[in-house]
Design a protein that fits this description.
The complex is a heterodimer of chains A (284) and B (125).
Chain A lengths: L1 H10 L22 E10 L7 E13 L2 E12 L4 E12 L9 E12 L21 H4 L3 E15 L2 E12 L5 E12 L16 E13 L10 E10 L4 E10 L7 E11 L2 H12 L1
Antiparallel strand pairs in A: 1-2, 1-12, 2-3, 3-4, 4-5, 5-6, 6-7, 7-8, 8-9, 9-10, 10-11, 11-12
Chain B lengths: L1 H27 L3 H4 L9 H14 L1 H4 L16 H5 L2 H10 L14 H13 L2
Classes of the chains: A mainly beta (284), B mainly alpha (125).
Chain lengths: 284, 125
């Protein structure tokens, strides 16, 4: 009953975020709010089967300058199996308390996943489609305990958002450090809001593009055999204040997946802490 | 016992004054150029209506439906401070937020929508 009430509460709220799937902007979750988002990636690596990978993200605004997230990952591969592939915990911290031309955010993540993880929410080092083509029974035997750091730089220029992410990742058990990048730009289709509630108005849509890829590692700091993608983005602020986003990504190198289609669906639940406090008060 | 009570009262008064000073200082940080800005949507009858919808989506959860605040962490928006603020002051505050004190920056909203919210906030004073 509690969860049901929270869900209804969430339907009545807005989620105002960019439709990026890989790139981060300096937007953080509003303090006290919980956003639940699913990010699905659909693709077919050369020599492998079609797969769908689902990342379920729980994002909580701890402070206006600090957002914490938990990801639960899984995937299903055609003619193979469906499995849970691990979890990730990340924190984003905004060190500067004012808006600047370029706004930095520090990102720290711990990742505990198996080699069967196919969500491709970041590309680093020499990650390629070959990593996604093996049978699940083999891939799941590989365990990855990784730390990932990002420097997020983001600017709101007029109605545009332009974001750049510099990524470094390291397996906690062995070398090397791997590097990657993600950049993106988005803009609402119309700047001004309408004076009446409207589902299909242009101000409810945000369009843009993002690009991401690997930059090699400390063993081989080259662009050889690295993956790179470019992906148009569209986000729609749904009636009921959920958010739907879609992005077809196109691989730019031989190591990249030819295409990866992404779909995101998000709900935001406001002031979760306050809700629990009031429940506790009601019991007393 | 009385000494402890007195110390607690002193700390509470100091904390209240410090918070008030911090809040007041935030308004004093507004650059003169921003303070002087006039709402480009002033006089547009639909701006306040559109601002009300944006307010409902993004601001109401903290500042309540009528902007009265929750009397606790989230302050009222119907105060002398807001009434006397210029359009530019309010737009600056929306754009910058007060991140250290829990108010997010709304720089991610398009400028036109921030001005619509300014029109709405002025209309409810």
């Amino acid at each position: 009953m509690t969860l049901y009430a929270m869900f209804l509460c969430g339907l009545a709220l807005a989620a105002q975020e960019k439709p990026y799937f890989v790139t981060y902007s300096h937007d953080l979750e509003e303090p006290g709010n919980l956003e639940i988002e699913t990010k699905t990636a659909l693709a077919k690596p050369d020599g492998g089967n079609h797969y769908g990978a689902l990342a379920t993200e729980l994002e909580y605004g701890v402070r206006a300058w600090w957002t914490s997230e938990l990801y639960l990952d899984g995937q299903a591969t055609s003619q193979d199996s469906t499995l849970f592939t691990g979890f990730r915990i990340e924190n984003r911290i905004r060190p500067l308390m004012r808006e600047h031309a370029v706004n930095p955010v520090l990102y720290v993540e711990y990742e505990n996943t198996s080699g069967a993880d196919k969500t491709v929410l970041e590309v680093v080092g020499h990650d390629g489609q070959g990593d996604l083509a093996g049978p699940n029974a083999e891939a799941r035997k590989e365990h990855q305990h990784e730390a990932e750091f990002k420097l997020i730089l983001s600017s709101n220029i007029h109605d545009w958002n332009v974001s750049e992410n510099f990524i470094t990742e390291k397996d906690l058990g062995h070398a090397p450090w791997e590097f990657g990048y993600a950049v993106g730009a988005t803009r609402p289709l119309r700047s001004a809001g309408g004076s009446r509630p409207c589902a299909f108005c242009a101000d409810k849509f945000i369009a843009g593009v993002e690009s991401y890829g690997g930059l090699g590692d400390t063993f081989s700091l080259t662009l050889g055999q690295t993956s790179h993608y470019i992906a148009p983005l569209i986000g729609w602020q749904l009636p009921g204040n959920a958010r739907l986003s879609f992005s077809p990504g196109f691989g730019l190198t031989d190591s990249s997946l030819n295409r990866v289609y992404r779909v995101g669906l998000a709900f935001e639940i406001e002031q979760v802490g306050r809700w629990f406090r009031s429940q506790r008060g009601g019991v007393q | 016992m009385k000494r402890h009570l007195f110390a607690i009262l002193c700390i509470a008064c100091f904390a209240t004054l410090a918070l008030a000073a911090a809040s007041s200082a935030r308004w004093q940080q507004i650059p003169a150029r921003d303070h002087a800005r006039v709402n480009p949507l002033a006089g547009n009858g639909e701006a306040a209506s559109a601002g009300a919808l944006i307010y409902r989506d993004h601001c109401q959860q903290c500042h309540q439906a009528a902007g009265q605040g929750d009397g606790h962490k989230h302050p009222s928006l119907r105060t002398d401070r807001i009434r006397s603020a210029s359009d530019g002051d309010i737009e600056w505050f929306l754009r910058q937020g007060d991140i250290g004190h829990g108010m997010p920056s709304w720089s991610s909203l398009p400028a036109a929508q921030r001005w619509q919210v300014v029109a709405y906030l002025k209309s409810i004073q």
